[in-house]
Amino acid sequence: MLLDRIKRYWRVVSRPSVHYSLGFLTVGGFIGGIIFWGGFNTAMEATNSEAFCTGCHEMRDNVFVELKSTIHYTNRSGVRAVCSDCHVPHEWTSKVARKMQASKEVWGKIFGTIDTQEKFRATRLELAQHEWARLKANDSLECRNCHQYASMDFTRQSVRAQNMHSTYLANKEKTCIDCHKGIAHQLPYIPPGDAPTDTPGQVVPQPGIGAAAPVASAAGG
Questions:
Q1: pLDDT, tens only, 38-72
Q2: Which alpha helices (DSSP H) does the chain contain, by range?
Q3: Is the pTM of this model over 0.85?
Q4: Cβ of 90: how many Cβ atoms within 10 Å?
Q5: Residue 185 · residue 63 · CB < 8 Å
Q6: Distance separating the N- and C-terminal Cα atoms of the chain
Q7: How far apart, in whole angstroms, are the C-alpha atoms of residue 88 and residue 91?
Q8: Is 172 left (phi over 0), alpha (psi -120 to 50) or beta?
Q9: DSSP 8-state symbol, 125
Q10: What H or E segment, with its residue span, contains residue 118?
């Protein structure tokens, strides 16, 4: 019976070691844990690097090209935001959860879900909406890792930005992603009726003007 097998297994693992002392096993387990943790964390950080994220042509030839033309990539202070800064939570447990979720991207890579630019453009709106929803749900956590409302110098902002930040961010009615969609990548073409109406004043590109072709059918619309 299964219960008997469990009992026998427990007797084996709970039996004192004949050849090694408890101290040796404790220290050995501690050292083994450090090695395992170090290897796991090293692998985790490797998957957060810009080189890893752009290792697949799907990202390198599409969104990474767009990022390179923005202030998040090159600016007067020399501070660069890499892919993981915006797309992977910094807090460890949330980071692990995001990595598990990203396993679906490995599946997509294997089966060529967006292995051509045409496929990428056809699903771009759907992909963007997933990321907008994620950032909306976590109150733009990745944005706030670098941009703190309390540290903003409103005197260096445009009048419109001052008004928006002092009103919508202050009363928490809006979060960063509501107004800053397309801050590091081009916005996809958004069909009429599907525009981000929660974003005051956001300019939505038209087909053929720095945007992908219409993708209404890809989004199910």
A1: 888 888 889 899 999 999 999 999 999 999 999 99
A2: 2-14, 22-46, 50-53, 57-60, 63-67, 83-87, 92-101, 103-110, 117-137, 141-144, 159-164, 176-179
A3: no
A4: 12
A5: yes
A6: 55
A7: 9
A8: left
A9: H
A10: helix 117-137
